[in-house]
Design brief:
By secondary structure, the protein is an alpha/beta fold. The model has no long low-confidence stretch (mean pLDDT 89). Helix 1 crosses helix 2, helix 2 crosses helix 7 and helix 7 packs antiparallel against helix 8.
Length: 311
């Protein structure tokens, strides 16, 4: 007589299963999806989930990164390396090209390009006729993201209406759209920062080095730690200190990674994933609280930027 045993699933198993289900729903319902991959920790988790959802076959979508031109060199190099290891197609579209076309106009040379990624993203969606963009946004990151559905509908202008969203009852997801419309799908929407780091630890995932404690030149500006004299992949150095600012060599790490001009590190001695998990468990500051300068200084809220097509 065969004895059946019941396996107890951990919370990471449940989150993983949900995310894989969502990825397969996107692949099944959408004609031309794309997975947004920046090289950051959340999109690294998405790649592992896509591997579990679709291997040994190829992914049913390419990877795409909207590059501001001011991304950390370590992250850009890791992005290219990881895509090559997987053997998947990586599409890169740059805000710099949008500036050259005149579709993005900066107020001044030093303005952060982060919010202008919306324009380049919408241009790339139109160029390749993508009907779904899979992203690594999570509800715990920011209050506007907490409002958004897992399958988030965008109209023909790339706009999101928080007051007109599709119901998602009983894990039934509606990814249908007409030509020109778009779905933003968020498989790890229900994950927290702690979940991400525990998953990275469990899966043994490689990350860009800047997520771990390292020495870096910084200045203290407006209550934030701002990295200065940062080299780009092109060899250019940006984020020069302002007159009168004192440069300090400090041990820091990044909790979230974006455009250099708006991403600040935190003081930390966590030089491996186990230490980061412990640090995350004890911190009282939200992930974006003191690390995303655009959230604090932008004249447009995250919700307004999302309405205009932001990730």
């Amino acid at each position: 007589m065969t004895t059946l045993t019941r396996q107890t699933l951990s919370h990471l198993d449940w989150l993983e299963a949900e995310a894989i289900h969502i990825l397969r729903e996107v692949a099944g319902q959408c004609e031309r999806p794309v997975l947004l991959f920046s090289g950051g920790k959340d999109s690294v988790c998405l790649l592992r989930l896509a591997e579990k959802a679709f291997r040994p076959g190829k992914f049913p979508f390419p990877l795409m990164h909207i590059d501001t031109g001011h991304n950390y060199k370590e992250v850009v190099e890791f992005r290219d390396k990881r895509a090559a290891e997987l053997g998947e197609r990586l599409i890169v579209r740059s805000v710099e090209d949008s500036i050259k076309r005149g579709t993005v106009v900066l107020k001044h040379e030093g303005e952060s390009r982060n919010k202008h990624q919306s324009v380049t993203l919408l241009e790339a969606i139109a160029e390749f006729e993508f009907d779904a963009c899979i992203g690594g946004a999570r509800r715990d990151e920011e209050k506007a993201r907490a409002k958004e559905r897992i399958m988030s509908f965008r109209d023909e202008f790339g706009q999101w209406d928080p007051k007109n969203q599709r119901p998602e009852l009983w894990n039934l997801y509606n990814a249908r759209s007409h030509k020109g419309e778009n779905i933003r799908a968020f498989p790890i929407s229900n994950w927290t920062e702690m979940d991400v780091w525990q998953y990275i630890e469990r899966e043994g995932l490689e990350l860009p080095s800047i997520y771990f404690a390292h020495q870096r030149d910084v200045v203290l500006r407006g209550g934030a730690i701002v990295p200065v004299n940062v080299p780009l992949a092109s060899g250019e150095v940006i984020n020069l200190p302002k007159p009168g600012e004192e440069i300090v060599d400090m041990q820091v790490r990044f909790r979230t990674v974006g455009d250099i001009t708006c991403t600040a590190p935190v003081v930390s001695d966590a030089d491996n994933v186990a230490k980061i998990v412990l640090e995350t468990a004890t911190t009282t500051i939200t992930e974006r609280g003191a690390t995303r300068l655009d959230d604090q200084t932008s004249d447009a809220s995250m919700e307004q930027r999302k309405k205009e097509g932001y990730f």
